[in-house]
Amino acid sequence: xxxxxxxxxxxxxxxxxxxxxxxxxxxxxxxxxxxxxxxxxxxxxxxxxxxxxxxxxxxxxxxxxxxxxxxxxxxxxxxxxxxxxxxxxxxxxxxxxxxxxxxxxxxxxxxxxxxxxxxxxxxxxxxxxxxxxxxxxxxxxxxxxxxxxxxxxxxxxxxxxxxxxxxxxxxxxxxxxxxxxxxxxxxxxxxxxxxxxxxxxxxxxxxxxxxxxxxxxxxxxxxxxxxxxxxxxxxxxxxxxxxxxxxxxxxxxxxxxxxxxxxxxxxxxxxxxxxxxxxxxxxxxxxxxxxxxxxxxxxxxxxxxxxxxxxxxxxxxxxxxxxxxxxxxxxxxxxx
Length: 336
Ligand code: PBG
Prior knowledge:
By secondary structure, this protein is α/β, with parallel strands linked by helices. Helices cover 40% and strands 15% of the residues. It is built from 12 helices and 10 strands. The chain has helices spanning 16-21, 59-71, 85-90, 96-109, 148-165, 179-189, 210-216, 235-247, 262-271, 287-298, 304-318, 328-335, and strands at residues 32-39, 46-47, 55-57, 76-82, 114-119, 169-172, 196-203, 252-256, 281-285, 322-325. It has an 8-stranded parallel β-barrel with strand order 1-4-5-6-7-8-9-10, surrounded by 9 helices. Helix 5 packs across helix 6 (179-189) and helix 11 (304-318) crosses helix 12 (328-335). It is globular and about 85 Å long. The site of ligand PBG has 12 residues, from helix 7.
């Protein structure tokens, strides 16, 4: 007998049924987190041209979008609350609107949703930086320096107000040192032990945040974010930040961006002994990654749904438990 073909690997790729029953990666709607933007002072929802299909919501349009997501099994949301330009100029750190939004959403949806709130200062500061600038110095080589201590105090205040208003989870995205311990402590001292903390632990100073910054009106007026966000050539820094956040009480660690940092996701999930198997990993497919796929599809060079689903599967395969993605509702549809 001639046994030349005894290693026929193509056998397991023959039909959709075979391919599907051998599938190792599954996208689950309850592990997708949909980011939403709500902007103060809007009379009507507005398309975000930089981020196809996404909107600056009013409270009414946001409630409708949440209802639609719930229909498809997406129950977790990451909320970005953007102050109006006028208010920002007049009162930089006034969270009255934020509190009313969170209260309204929790009044309407209660425990049917899990509401993560992004906590950072970049939408609130006139400088567009994620923290307060040190007044008395031009920083290193003219680049503005951030006052870590004052910034962390404000992040704690904001987190507390959000949690008291009903946020289920706080997601600090500022990258200041030791903010996880400080926020955890603040919540615990105010009997908010049950509120989750998802830390943007490995957040890189990335070129892929452009569409978001247009949406959140949060571009730095001068300089860049490289003195607080991670350098993408420094793997060690991402790893030690993640370990520190876990030690300081984070419930979920996040890697951001996702699709071009799969190695970091994989390391934290499977390889790094301090984190592997010890804490869930979230990955944030950021605005530029998402929009890149949109543009590819708009140029007729790929089918969006199919390319998008592939991108989610790659992030899952690398080890992400949770995926934050602008297409969460679509991802849920595609996975069912
Ligand atoms: C705020 C923040 C940013 C993103 C999430 N929170 C922008 C930034 O750090 O400049 C980016 C999200 C995205 O691009 O989708 N600090």
